[in-house]
Amino acid sequence: MASETLLARISDYANRPDPYPLYAELREAGPVVRQADGSCLIGTYHEIAALLHDPRMSAEPRSRTDSSSEETRRPPFLRLDDPEHHRLRTLTMRPFGPPHSPRRVDAMRGEIAHITGELIEALRDREQIDVVDDFAYPLPITVICRLMGVPREDEALFQGWTDVIVASADIGPEEDTTERDKAGLQARQEMGRYLVDLAEQRRGRPTGDMLSDFINEPDPALRLTVEELAETTILLFIAGHETTVNLITNGVLTLLRRPEELDRLRREPGLLPRAVEELLRYEPPVHMRERIPLADIDVAGTTIPEGTSVILALASGSRDPKRFHEPDRFDPTRPDNEHFGFGSGIHLCYGAPLARIEAETALGALLPHLGTARLVQDPPPYRQNAMLRGPRHLPIHL
Length: 398
Hints:
The chain is of the alpha+beta class. It has helices spanning 6-11, 20-29, 45-52, 84-93, 101-122, 131-136, 138-148, 155-168, 177-200, 210-215, 226-239, 242-257, 259-267, 272-282, 314-317, 352-366; strands at 33-34, 40-42, 57-58, 128-130, 288-293, 297-299, 302-304, 310-313, 374-375, 395-397. Helix 5 (101-122) runs parallel beside helix 16, helix 8 (155-168) packs antiparallel against helix 9 (177-200) and helix 14 packs across helix 16.
């Protein structure tokens, strides 16, 4: 089939278990591959890196309106350009910065270890588990709920909202987006209202969580508006949850497929941080990102017109043989591992530090139990989302 259909083929669910041969085809077809729908697909490392750092490439989505209200939805700062992106990201990072950082990061590590231990203990007498439903999914949603100060009895609400919002962010045929966008907008509104109401309950009554820090910011010039508070806290849930679910699940799947590397990590747990970085390169949680050029731009001798949808295949770039030695080999000791697992540039994934801590803790806790484990199904069933790729279920025999 022609290279002009590559994006459609990558998005085709039939190719979800193994899109990497298509990424190799993409790299062979050239740095810039025009698609039948008018978009441009780019899968080579150096071109992706340059575009992610190019201020002429906009992260802001083309205008989308809710068909019922005709109101344009303001995107979260992840989809805004500077200077607005920088302002909101800086304000949002304040609860993590001095003097909060040591206290909060240390507290998160301890809380993550505690939650992980509880989940592992619940699996102790099970002969078969689903790594997603029983472990990888509840861990990050519980962590981010605790971080934000969501009451434990309400944590389950966020699983449903997060699923719908993530589905609405997928890259796919335009005719499929209307219902998906409407569902995503409704979920965002419901989650946003809940979080703003919860924050308001803490105005003047600090409770030490991030919602409390946001609503009780002492400097009026640095306070988030109600709209900004809603979108920013929603983004924290998505960034702090979805990438981590896929990272942990992809990690377990990769190690069970490679028992020699699993045994090595069990013997040398000090390799875990580097193994997590290699997982971010080899089986990343984020596969694609869209950018829009604000002016005509030249990429490797090809002019991409202003306003064109440019799809950066990050997962392809992280397996580019012109950048990585033996890119299709999983190597937990790989040096110089500057991957695109969390993107790059000013829009580097907001939840990356938290995801790394969770993945290291989760895989470290699981390793002792995986020595005799085996996959029930390989490949496992995958999520529909091509952009945020990972198994929907991962049943294993312990």
